Amino acid sequence: MSGALSHLRVLDLSRVLAGPWCGQNLADLGAEVIKVERPRVGDDTRHWGPPYLRNDEGCDTSEAAYFLSANRNKQSLTLDFTQAEGQRLVRELASKSDILIENFKVGGLAAYGLDYASLKAINPRLIYCSITGFGQSGPYAKRAGYDFMIQGLGGLMSLTGHPDSGEGGGPVKVGVALTDILTGLYATVAVLAALAHREKTGEGQHIDMALLDVQVACLANQAMNYLTTGVSPKRLGNAHPNIVPYQAFPTADGDLILTVGNDSQFRKFCEVAGHVEWGSDPRFSSNGQRVAHRAELIPLIRQVTVFRTTAEWVSVLEAAGVPCGPVNDLEQVFADPQVIARGLRIDLPHPLAGSTPQVASPLRLSASPVEYRQAPPLLGEHTERVLSDVLGLDTSQIAVLRSQGVI
Protein backbone atom coordinates (compact mmCIF):
# COMPACT_ATOMS: atom_id res chain seq x y z
CA MET A 1 0.00 0.00 0.00
CA SER A 2 1.25 3.50 -0.83
CA GLY A 3 -1.55 5.76 0.40
CA ALA A 4 -0.90 8.74 2.66
CA LEU A 5 -2.09 6.73 5.71
CA SER A 6 -0.65 3.35 4.73
CA HIS A 7 1.52 3.31 7.86
CA LEU A 8 -1.53 3.34 10.14
CA ARG A 9 -3.88 0.71 11.53
CA VAL A 10 -7.48 1.55 12.45
CA LEU A 11 -9.67 -0.57 14.70
CA ASP A 12 -13.24 0.20 13.63
CA LEU A 13 -15.81 -0.85 16.25
CA SER A 14 -18.52 1.39 14.76
CA ARG A 15 -21.75 0.47 13.02
CA VAL A 16 -24.33 2.05 10.72
CA LEU A 17 -23.02 5.21 8.97
CA ALA A 18 -21.17 8.03 10.77
CA GLY A 19 -18.37 5.86 12.18
CA PRO A 20 -18.06 3.59 9.13
CA TRP A 21 -17.95 6.69 6.89
CA CYS A 22 -14.96 7.96 8.87
CA GLY A 23 -13.35 4.51 8.68
CA GLN A 24 -13.88 4.33 4.92
CA ASN A 25 -12.27 7.75 4.44
CA LEU A 26 -9.20 6.58 6.37
CA ALA A 27 -9.16 3.29 4.45
CA ASP A 28 -9.38 5.07 1.11
CA LEU A 29 -6.36 7.12 2.14
CA GLY A 30 -4.40 3.91 2.67
CA ALA A 31 -4.92 2.98 6.32
CA GLU A 32 -5.38 -0.66 7.28
CA VAL A 33 -8.90 -0.72 8.72
CA ILE A 34 -10.09 -3.72 10.72
CA LYS A 35 -13.87 -3.68 11.09
CA VAL A 36 -14.96 -5.58 14.20
CA GLU A 37 -18.45 -7.08 13.83
CA ARG A 38 -20.73 -9.31 15.85
CA PRO A 39 -20.48 -12.97 14.84
CA ARG A 40 -23.38 -14.14 12.62
CA VAL A 41 -25.03 -10.70 12.71
CA GLY A 42 -22.52 -8.06 11.75
CA ASP A 43 -23.10 -4.37 11.18
CA ASP A 44 -26.80 -3.43 11.37
CA THR A 45 -26.70 -2.06 7.83
CA ARG A 46 -25.89 -5.47 6.36
CA HIS A 47 -29.62 -6.13 6.84
CA TRP A 48 -30.97 -2.72 5.80
CA GLY A 49 -32.50 -3.76 2.51
CA PRO A 50 -33.76 -4.16 -0.08
CA PRO A 51 -32.08 -3.25 -2.31
CA TYR A 52 -29.28 -5.80 -2.22
CA LEU A 53 -26.30 -6.32 -4.49
CA ARG A 54 -27.29 -8.51 -7.44
CA ASN A 55 -25.18 -11.19 -9.07
CA ASP A 56 -24.72 -11.82 -12.79
CA GLU A 57 -28.04 -13.70 -12.92
CA GLY A 58 -29.90 -10.73 -11.47
CA CYS A 59 -30.54 -12.44 -8.14
CA ASP A 60 -30.11 -10.70 -4.80
CA THR A 61 -27.04 -11.55 -2.73
CA SER A 62 -26.88 -11.15 1.03
CA GLU A 63 -25.11 -7.78 0.76
CA ALA A 64 -27.32 -4.73 1.36
CA ALA A 65 -26.62 -1.68 -0.79
CA TYR A 66 -26.57 0.45 2.37
CA PHE A 67 -23.67 -1.53 3.85
CA LEU A 68 -21.79 -1.35 0.55
CA SER A 69 -21.87 2.47 0.67
CA ALA A 70 -19.60 2.87 3.71
CA ASN A 71 -17.28 -0.10 4.15
CA ARG A 72 -14.92 -0.26 1.18
CA ASN A 73 -11.25 -1.16 1.73
CA LYS A 74 -11.87 -2.72 5.16
CA GLN A 75 -11.20 -6.15 6.64
CA SER A 76 -14.08 -7.79 8.51
CA LEU A 77 -13.25 -9.53 11.78
CA THR A 78 -16.11 -11.19 13.64
CA LEU A 79 -15.52 -11.00 17.38
CA ASP A 80 -17.82 -11.23 20.40
CA PHE A 81 -16.37 -8.86 22.97
CA THR A 82 -19.17 -9.53 25.43
CA GLN A 83 -17.03 -12.58 26.26
CA ALA A 84 -13.85 -12.17 28.31
CA GLU A 85 -11.69 -13.73 25.61
CA GLY A 86 -13.17 -11.39 23.01
CA GLN A 87 -12.37 -8.41 25.22
CA ARG A 88 -8.79 -9.61 25.55
CA LEU A 89 -8.45 -9.85 21.79
CA VAL A 90 -9.81 -6.33 21.26
CA ARG A 91 -7.32 -5.01 23.83
CA GLU A 92 -4.50 -6.77 22.00
CA LEU A 93 -5.63 -5.30 18.71
CA ALA A 94 -5.91 -1.85 20.29
CA SER A 95 -2.38 -2.15 21.61
CA LYS A 96 -1.21 -2.64 18.02
CA SER A 97 -3.43 0.07 16.46
CA ASP A 98 -3.08 3.79 15.92
CA ILE A 99 -6.76 4.75 15.83
CA LEU A 100 -9.97 3.31 17.28
CA ILE A 101 -13.44 4.37 16.14
CA GLU A 102 -16.55 3.52 18.17
CA ASN A 103 -20.15 4.70 18.32
CA PHE A 104 -21.55 2.93 21.37
CA LYS A 105 -23.66 4.76 23.94
CA VAL A 106 -21.75 6.84 26.46
CA GLY A 107 -20.07 4.45 28.90
CA GLY A 108 -21.17 1.42 26.90
CA LEU A 109 -17.67 0.04 26.36
CA ALA A 110 -16.47 0.67 29.93
CA ALA A 111 -18.27 -2.48 31.10
CA TYR A 112 -15.95 -4.48 28.83
CA GLY A 113 -12.77 -2.61 29.72
CA LEU A 114 -12.69 -1.13 26.22
CA ASP A 115 -13.23 2.53 27.09
CA TYR A 116 -10.59 5.17 26.37
CA ALA A 117 -9.12 5.22 29.88
CA SER A 118 -8.63 1.44 29.86
CA LEU A 119 -7.09 1.31 26.39
CA LYS A 120 -4.93 4.39 26.93
CA ALA A 121 -3.28 2.54 29.80
CA ILE A 122 -2.00 -0.10 27.38
CA ASN A 123 -1.43 2.16 24.37
CA PRO A 124 -0.84 5.85 25.25
CA ARG A 125 -0.44 6.68 21.55
CA LEU A 126 -3.94 5.48 20.69
CA ILE A 127 -6.29 8.01 19.10
CA TYR A 128 -9.75 7.00 20.32
CA CYS A 129 -12.69 8.52 18.43
CA SER A 130 -16.12 8.25 20.08
CA ILE A 131 -19.18 9.13 17.99
CA THR A 132 -22.51 9.52 19.77
CA GLY A 133 -25.75 11.37 19.28
CA PHE A 134 -25.14 14.02 21.94
CA GLY A 135 -21.53 13.75 23.09
CA GLN A 136 -19.90 12.59 26.29
CA SER A 137 -21.36 15.36 28.45
CA GLY A 138 -24.58 17.31 28.95
CA PRO A 139 -28.12 16.31 29.97
CA TYR A 140 -28.72 14.30 26.78
CA ALA A 141 -25.42 12.40 26.85
CA LYS A 142 -26.93 9.00 27.56
CA ARG A 143 -29.65 9.27 24.91
CA ALA A 144 -29.43 7.36 21.67
CA GLY A 145 -29.19 9.61 18.63
CA TYR A 146 -30.19 8.88 15.04
CA ASP A 147 -29.74 11.10 12.01
CA PHE A 148 -33.44 11.77 11.35
CA MET A 149 -34.11 12.74 14.93
CA ILE A 150 -31.03 14.98 15.04
CA GLN A 151 -32.08 16.72 11.81
CA GLY A 152 -35.28 17.70 13.62
CA LEU A 153 -33.87 18.52 17.03
CA GLY A 154 -30.84 20.31 15.57
CA GLY A 155 -32.85 22.73 13.47
CA LEU A 156 -32.19 21.47 9.94
CA MET A 157 -35.80 20.43 9.34
CA SER A 158 -37.04 23.86 10.41
CA LEU A 159 -35.20 25.14 7.32
CA THR A 160 -36.00 22.31 4.89
CA GLY A 161 -39.31 22.01 3.09
CA HIS A 162 -41.97 24.36 1.75
CA PRO A 163 -43.38 27.22 3.85
CA ASP A 164 -46.19 26.26 6.20
CA SER A 165 -48.49 28.68 4.39
CA GLY A 166 -48.05 26.97 1.00
CA GLU A 167 -49.15 23.70 -0.58
CA GLY A 168 -47.19 20.78 0.84
CA GLY A 169 -45.81 22.96 3.60
CA GLY A 170 -44.08 21.52 6.64
CA PRO A 171 -40.73 20.18 7.79
CA VAL A 172 -38.86 17.70 5.57
CA LYS A 173 -35.69 15.76 6.26
CA VAL A 174 -32.81 15.76 3.80
CA GLY A 175 -32.97 12.80 1.41
CA VAL A 176 -29.76 11.21 2.69
CA ALA A 177 -28.52 10.81 6.27
CA LEU A 178 -26.61 14.05 5.97
CA THR A 179 -25.88 14.51 9.66
CA ASP A 180 -24.26 11.08 9.83
CA ILE A 181 -22.19 11.81 6.73
CA LEU A 182 -21.05 15.19 8.02
CA THR A 183 -20.20 13.67 11.40
CA GLY A 184 -18.09 11.05 9.64
CA LEU A 185 -16.28 13.79 7.74
CA TYR A 186 -15.70 15.91 10.87
CA ALA A 187 -14.48 12.78 12.67
CA THR A 188 -11.99 12.19 9.86
CA VAL A 189 -10.71 15.75 10.22
CA ALA A 190 -10.40 15.32 13.99
CA VAL A 191 -8.49 12.05 13.60
CA LEU A 192 -6.04 13.66 11.18
CA ALA A 193 -5.56 16.59 13.59
CA ALA A 194 -4.93 14.14 16.44
CA LEU A 195 -2.35 12.36 14.29
CA ALA A 196 -0.56 15.68 13.71
CA HIS A 197 -0.61 16.32 17.47
CA ARG A 198 0.79 12.84 18.12
CA GLU A 199 3.65 13.46 15.70
CA LYS A 200 4.70 16.44 17.83
CA THR A 201 4.07 15.00 21.30
CA GLY A 202 3.90 11.22 21.00
CA GLU A 203 0.52 11.32 22.76
CA GLY A 204 -2.81 9.94 21.66
CA GLN A 205 -6.09 11.49 22.76
CA HIS A 206 -9.85 11.04 23.04
CA ILE A 207 -12.05 12.59 20.35
CA ASP A 208 -15.64 13.34 21.39
CA MET A 209 -17.86 13.65 18.29
CA ALA A 210 -21.60 14.34 18.61
CA LEU A 211 -24.18 14.31 15.83
CA LEU A 212 -26.02 17.24 17.45
CA ASP A 213 -22.84 19.33 17.63
CA VAL A 214 -22.14 18.69 13.96
CA GLN A 215 -25.71 19.43 12.93
CA VAL A 216 -25.75 22.78 14.72
CA ALA A 217 -22.29 23.70 13.39
CA CYS A 218 -23.41 22.97 9.83
CA LEU A 219 -26.34 25.37 10.02
CA ALA A 220 -23.69 27.82 8.80
CA ASN A 221 -25.18 31.09 7.46
CA GLN A 222 -28.64 30.18 8.73
CA ALA A 223 -27.32 29.91 12.28
CA MET A 224 -25.72 33.33 11.89
CA ASN A 225 -28.92 34.71 10.37
CA TYR A 226 -30.59 33.81 13.68
CA LEU A 227 -27.72 34.77 16.02
CA THR A 228 -27.34 38.23 14.49
CA THR A 229 -31.07 39.04 14.47
CA GLY A 230 -32.76 36.88 17.08
CA VAL A 231 -35.27 35.82 14.42
CA SER A 232 -35.50 32.14 13.48
CA PRO A 233 -35.27 31.63 9.70
CA LYS A 234 -38.27 29.96 8.10
CA ARG A 235 -38.62 27.30 5.43
CA LEU A 236 -38.40 28.74 1.93
CA GLY A 237 -38.69 25.60 -0.16
CA ASN A 238 -36.00 25.79 -2.83
CA ALA A 239 -35.38 29.51 -2.31
CA HIS A 240 -32.36 31.06 -0.56
CA PRO A 241 -32.78 33.30 2.48
CA ASN A 242 -30.04 35.76 1.48
CA ILE A 243 -29.83 35.64 -2.34
CA VAL A 244 -32.48 36.22 -5.05
CA PRO A 245 -33.02 34.66 -7.57
CA TYR A 246 -31.47 31.48 -6.20
CA GLN A 247 -33.98 28.66 -6.52
CA ALA A 248 -35.76 26.27 -8.88
CA PHE A 249 -38.06 27.54 -11.62
CA PRO A 250 -40.48 25.60 -13.86
CA THR A 251 -39.54 25.06 -17.50
CA ALA A 252 -41.40 23.66 -20.51
CA ASP A 253 -40.32 20.12 -19.58
CA GLY A 254 -39.16 20.17 -15.98
CA ASP A 255 -37.23 22.44 -13.66
CA LEU A 256 -34.26 24.79 -13.83
CA ILE A 257 -32.06 25.74 -10.90
CA LEU A 258 -31.01 29.37 -11.22
CA THR A 259 -28.20 30.46 -8.90
CA VAL A 260 -27.57 34.15 -9.44
CA GLY A 261 -24.78 35.15 -7.07
CA ASN A 262 -24.29 38.83 -7.88
CA ASP A 263 -25.86 41.82 -9.64
CA SER A 264 -23.82 41.38 -12.81
CA GLN A 265 -25.11 37.84 -13.23
CA PHE A 266 -28.64 39.07 -12.67
CA ARG A 267 -28.34 41.64 -15.45
CA LYS A 268 -26.99 38.95 -17.79
CA PHE A 269 -29.95 36.74 -16.89
CA CYS A 270 -32.36 39.61 -17.66
CA GLU A 271 -30.80 40.01 -21.12
CA VAL A 272 -31.17 36.30 -21.91
CA ALA A 273 -34.73 36.30 -20.54
CA GLY A 274 -35.70 39.23 -22.76
CA HIS A 275 -36.35 41.59 -19.86
CA VAL A 276 -33.41 43.97 -19.70
CA GLU A 277 -35.59 46.42 -17.77
CA TRP A 278 -35.51 44.19 -14.68
CA GLY A 279 -31.81 44.86 -14.29
CA SER A 280 -32.35 48.61 -13.86
CA ASP A 281 -35.63 48.42 -11.95
CA PRO A 282 -34.94 49.95 -8.47
CA ARG A 283 -36.79 47.00 -6.88
CA PHE A 284 -34.43 44.46 -8.47
CA SER A 285 -31.15 46.22 -9.31
CA SER A 286 -29.28 45.01 -6.19
CA ASN A 287 -29.42 41.75 -4.31
CA GLY A 288 -30.67 43.47 -1.17
CA GLN A 289 -33.56 44.95 -3.11
CA ARG A 290 -34.30 41.62 -4.79
CA VAL A 291 -34.47 39.93 -1.40
CA ALA A 292 -36.84 42.67 -0.17
CA HIS A 293 -39.00 42.37 -3.30
CA ARG A 294 -38.75 38.61 -3.70
CA ALA A 295 -42.55 38.21 -3.84
CA GLU A 296 -42.73 40.53 -6.87
CA LEU A 297 -39.72 39.25 -8.83
CA ILE A 298 -40.12 35.47 -8.53
CA PRO A 299 -43.56 35.31 -10.27
CA LEU A 300 -42.17 37.41 -13.14
CA ILE A 301 -39.29 35.00 -13.66
CA ARG A 302 -41.58 31.96 -13.46
CA GLN A 303 -43.75 33.40 -16.23
CA VAL A 304 -40.67 33.51 -18.49
CA THR A 305 -38.91 30.21 -17.71
CA VAL A 306 -41.89 28.05 -18.71
CA PHE A 307 -41.44 28.91 -22.39
CA ARG A 308 -38.14 27.03 -22.88
CA THR A 309 -36.99 23.54 -21.97
CA THR A 310 -34.47 23.01 -19.22
CA ALA A 311 -31.77 22.08 -21.73
CA GLU A 312 -32.44 25.23 -23.76
CA TRP A 313 -32.17 27.42 -20.67
CA VAL A 314 -28.97 25.74 -19.54
CA SER A 315 -27.42 26.22 -22.97
CA VAL A 316 -28.17 29.93 -23.31
CA LEU A 317 -27.51 30.82 -19.67
CA GLU A 318 -24.19 28.99 -19.53
CA ALA A 319 -23.13 30.83 -22.69
CA ALA A 320 -23.98 34.10 -20.95
CA GLY A 321 -22.10 33.16 -17.77
CA VAL A 322 -25.17 32.73 -15.58
CA PRO A 323 -24.86 29.76 -13.16
CA CYS A 324 -27.69 27.27 -13.60
CA GLY A 325 -28.43 23.58 -13.93
CA PRO A 326 -31.09 20.86 -14.16
CA VAL A 327 -32.67 18.80 -11.39
CA ASN A 328 -31.33 15.32 -12.17
CA ASP A 329 -32.45 11.97 -10.84
CA LEU A 330 -29.69 9.49 -10.05
CA GLU A 331 -29.88 7.80 -13.45
CA GLN A 332 -29.19 11.18 -15.02
CA VAL A 333 -26.46 11.93 -12.48
CA PHE A 334 -24.43 8.84 -13.33
CA ALA A 335 -24.98 9.43 -17.06
CA ASP A 336 -23.80 13.04 -16.84
CA PRO A 337 -20.63 13.61 -18.90
CA GLN A 338 -18.88 15.48 -16.09
CA VAL A 339 -19.64 12.70 -13.59
CA ILE A 340 -18.35 10.14 -16.09
CA ALA A 341 -15.24 12.19 -16.86
CA ARG A 342 -14.41 12.46 -13.16
CA GLY A 343 -14.83 8.70 -12.70
CA LEU A 344 -17.36 8.99 -9.90
CA ARG A 345 -18.63 5.47 -10.49
CA ILE A 346 -16.13 2.67 -10.03
CA ASP A 347 -16.53 -1.12 -9.91
CA LEU A 348 -14.65 -3.46 -7.60
CA PRO A 349 -14.39 -7.27 -7.70
CA HIS A 350 -16.84 -8.95 -5.34
CA PRO A 351 -16.90 -12.65 -4.38
CA LEU A 352 -20.70 -12.99 -4.51
CA ALA A 353 -21.56 -10.87 -7.52
CA GLY A 354 -18.47 -10.73 -9.67
CA SER A 355 -18.26 -7.00 -9.07
CA THR A 356 -19.96 -4.28 -7.10
CA PRO A 357 -20.49 -0.65 -8.11
CA GLN A 358 -19.12 2.03 -5.81
CA VAL A 359 -19.15 5.81 -5.66
CA ALA A 360 -15.58 7.06 -5.91
CA SER A 361 -14.02 9.15 -3.18
CA PRO A 362 -14.02 12.89 -3.96
CA LEU A 363 -10.52 13.20 -2.45
CA ARG A 364 -8.03 13.85 -5.26
CA LEU A 365 -4.41 13.95 -4.06
CA SER A 366 -1.64 14.29 -6.64
CA ALA A 367 1.15 12.54 -4.72
CA SER A 368 -0.76 10.05 -2.55
CA PRO A 369 -4.02 9.27 -4.35
CA VAL A 370 -6.93 7.33 -2.93
CA GLU A 371 -6.60 3.56 -3.33
CA TYR A 372 -9.44 1.16 -4.14
CA ARG A 373 -8.04 -2.11 -2.83
CA GLN A 374 -11.13 -4.18 -2.22
CA ALA A 375 -14.91 -4.21 -2.09
CA PRO A 376 -16.77 -3.96 1.22
CA PRO A 377 -16.03 -7.26 2.96
CA LEU A 378 -18.24 -10.24 3.56
CA LEU A 379 -19.09 -10.80 7.22
CA GLY A 380 -16.02 -12.29 8.89
CA GLU A 381 -14.16 -12.55 5.60
CA HIS A 382 -10.81 -11.65 7.17
CA THR A 383 -11.18 -13.07 10.68
CA GLU A 384 -8.49 -15.69 10.38
CA ARG A 385 -6.14 -13.41 8.46
CA VAL A 386 -6.34 -10.66 11.09
CA LEU A 387 -5.90 -13.00 14.03
CA SER A 388 -2.97 -14.67 12.33
CA ASP A 389 -1.20 -11.68 10.79
CA VAL A 390 -1.81 -9.08 13.50
CA LEU A 391 -1.98 -11.16 16.68
CA GLY A 392 0.12 -14.15 15.59
CA LEU A 393 -2.47 -16.82 16.45
CA ASP A 394 -2.05 -20.22 14.85
CA THR A 395 -4.79 -22.35 13.28
CA SER A 396 -5.40 -24.40 16.43
CA GLN A 397 -5.85 -21.28 18.58
CA ILE A 398 -8.23 -19.82 16.03
CA ALA A 399 -10.19 -23.08 15.93
CA VAL A 400 -10.63 -22.96 19.71
CA LEU A 401 -11.94 -19.38 19.52
CA ARG A 402 -14.40 -20.43 16.85
CA SER A 403 -15.61 -23.42 18.86
CA GLN A 404 -16.21 -21.12 21.85
CA GLY A 405 -18.23 -18.68 19.76
CA VAL A 406 -15.74 -15.86 20.37
CA ILE A 407 -15.27 -15.38 16.62
From TrEMBL:
InterPro entries: CoA-transferase_III_domain (IPR050483), CoA-Trfase_fam_III (IPR003673), CoA-Trfase_III_dom3_sf (IPR044855), CoA-Trfase_III_dom_1_sf (IPR023606). The keyword Ligase does not apply. One of its GO terms (molecular function) is CoA-transferase activity. Keywords: Transferase. This is Crotonobetainyl-CoA:carnitine CoA-transferase CaiB.
